[in-house]
Amino acid sequence: MALSPHPARDYAAQPRLLLIAALAVPIGALGTVAALVLLTLIRFFTNLFFFQTVSIADQSPAGHTLGAWVIALPVIGGVIVGLMARFGTEKIRGHGIPEAIEAILFGKSRMSPKVALLKPLSSGIVIGSGGPFGAEGPIIMTGGAIGSLLGQRFHLSASERKTLLVAGATAGMTGVFGTPLAAVLLGVELLLFELRPRSLLPVAIACAVAGFMRPLLLEAGRLFPLETAPAGWPALASCVVAGVLAGLLSAGMSRALYAVEDLFHRLPLHWMWWPALGGLAVGLGGWWQPRAFGVGYDVIADLLNHRLLVGAALSLLAVKAAMWVVALGSGTSGGVLAPLLMIGAGLGLVLSPVLPGGDAALWPLVCMAAVLAGVLGAPLTATAFAFGLTGAGNALLPLLLACAVSHGVSVLLMRRSIMTERIARRGRHVYREYGVDPQERVHVGDVMTRTPQTVPAYTALAEVAERWFGAGQVHRAFPVVTGDGRFVGMLDRDRLARGDAAALTAGDLFDGDDADVAIADDTCRKAAQVMATTGLERLAVVDHPGTRRLVGLVSRSDLVKPAQSVHEEDAVRER
C-alpha cells in the first residue's frame, strides 16, 4: 500500500461525509419526536402518580393533595425502575451522559433497542413519581440510541456511528430545551472528543433540523425568557466571585454525590432496590418542600425573576440538592441539568444583594450557568445554554467570564467531573483535553533516517544472511534496493528464511510494487497508521509512489519524536 502524495490541507475530507450528513436529517427529526415522547411520558406519569388521572396536561406535582401518602410515590417509582434495570437493561441506570460517553469511547458507539425504549420510559416513571431530575440526560441516551441503531442498520464504521449517536443525542436535547447551539457545543465538549468536519457537520445539521421541528411538535420560544441591563465595570470582579463560589459549590456537590454512591455500594442489598431507598429520601424531602418534586422549570423561572424570598429559596434548594444527591447516588434514572440550573440560580439569588455591577436579574442567571460549567466541565456549553434558554444578550460577557472561572476552580479541585467519575470507577480513563495531534504537525521527512543501511537487490541470500543477519545484526529489517536506488521491499529474518539461500538473491523475494511505503511529505500520523495496520516496525520512505526511489527510513521510535517536542513546549521554561 503506497501513500499517495497530496497537497496539505487543513481538514481531512471524505465523500462519505455527505452520506453521514444526509442521515443526520432523519436523526434530527427522530430526536425531536423522542423529546416529545419523553416529555409526554413525564406529564402522563406526573398526573397518574400525583393526581390519579390519565392525562398529559402540564401540571406541577406541588399541587397534589395526598398529604403524607406522597412519600410513597417516589418509592414506588424507584421499585419499578429497579425492576426494569434488573430484568431489562442496566444501561438505563444513571443520568445518561456518562453512559453515552462510555458507549462512544469503549463500546464502539453501539447501543441496544432496549435502551431506546426503556430509558425514556424509566425516566418518565422516575420524574413523574417525583424524582428531582431533568429530561436532558434521558433524552441524550434515547436520542443517542436512535442514532446508534440507525448507524448499525447501515453498517457504518465506529467513527461514523459515533457521529450519528451524538447527532441523535444533541437533537433530542435541542427538542427539549430549544438550544441548538448549546447542544452542538455539548456534543463537542462532552461526547465527540474531537472537533472535525466529519462529526461537527452532521451534528449541527441534526440540531438545526430539531430546532426547526421543535415549534411544530413542542412549545415555541425560550423556556425562561429574561432581559438584563448591561453590566458595568464592577461586574468584572463580581463575575470572578460568582465563578469561584459556583466552582466550590460544583466540587462540593460532585464529591457529595459519589460519597453517597459509595454508601449505597456498601449496603448488603442488591442494587435493584437502591432506587427505592433513594425514592424514600425524595418522598420525605418532597413532603416537606412540594416544589422540590419533579423537573422544577417553574421554580427555575421564579428564581431567575426574583419571585422567591431568599429564606424560602434557601430552604427549597437545600432540600432539592439533598434529594438530587441521594436519588442520583442510588442509581436511578434521570438527568442532571435541570437540578443544577435550579441550584445555581438559587446561589445567584442569595448573592444578588451583595454583588455590584449588574441588576438583580443578572446574578441568578450567571450563577446558574457557572454551576453547570463547574459540574459538567463544559464552560462553552454552559454559556451558550444559559443564553439560549433566556435570550439575555447583555449577560453574555458575564456568563462567559463566570463560567470560565468556575471551570478553572473545579479543574483545580477535582480530578474528574461528574460526567467521568462514574466511568473512572469502572477502571476506564477518559482524558478530556483536546489538542492538535503532534504527529499531524510533523512530516516524515523531518524525523526519518536519511542514510539507512540497505541491501542491494542483486545480493545472494547466503551473503545477506551472513552480512546483515549474522551475529552483529544491527536492525530487525533492511530495505532492499535496486542498482538505481529503487525500493523493492523490506527484508527481515522471516522473509529471508522462506527463500533458497543457494539460488536466490534478495530481490527475488519480492514481487511487484506492493510493499508499503511513505513519502517525505506525509505526516507522522499517517505513517503511524500504516505501521499500526500492517504491523511493520520500519517503513521505507520514497521520493514518489511511482518512481519509488529510497530517500530514507522511518521507524516506530522516530514517530515518538513529535511527542518530545510537545514535552519541551510544555515543560521547558525560557529565560
Helix vs. strand class: mainly alpha
In CATH terms, the superfamily of the largest domain is Clc chloride channel
**Number of E-type strands:** 6
Q: Could you estimate the helical fraction of the residues in percent?
A: 55-70%
Mean pLDDT: 87
User: Please, how many helices?
Assistant: 23
CATH architecture of the largest domain: Orthogonal Bundle
Tell me the overall shape: elongated
Strand order of the largest sheet: 1-2-3
User: Which residue ranges are poorly predicted, with pLDDT under 50 across at least 5 consecutive positions?
Assistant: 1-5
What does this entry look like structurally?
By secondary structure, this protein is mainly alpha-helical. It folds into three domains: 16-217, Clc chloride channel (Orthogonal Bundle); 235-424, Clc chloride channel (Orthogonal Bundle); 438-563, CBS-domain (Roll), CATH 3.10.580.10. 58% of the residues lie in helices and 5% in strands. The protein has helices at residues 16-51, 72-87, 97-106, 113-128, 136-153, 158-177, 180-192, 197-217, 235-265, 274-288, 297-304, 310-329, 337-351, 362-376, 379-390, 396-413, 421-424, 438-441, 444-447, 461-467, 493-498, 524-534, 561-571, and strands at 455-456, 477-481, 487-492, 517-519, 538-542, 550-555. The strands form two sheets. The chain has a three-stranded mixed sheet. Strand 1, helix 20 (461-467) and strand 2 (477-481) form a beta-alpha-beta unit. The longest helix is centred in the N-terminal third of the chain and has 36 residues, at 16-51. The two termini are 47 Å apart.
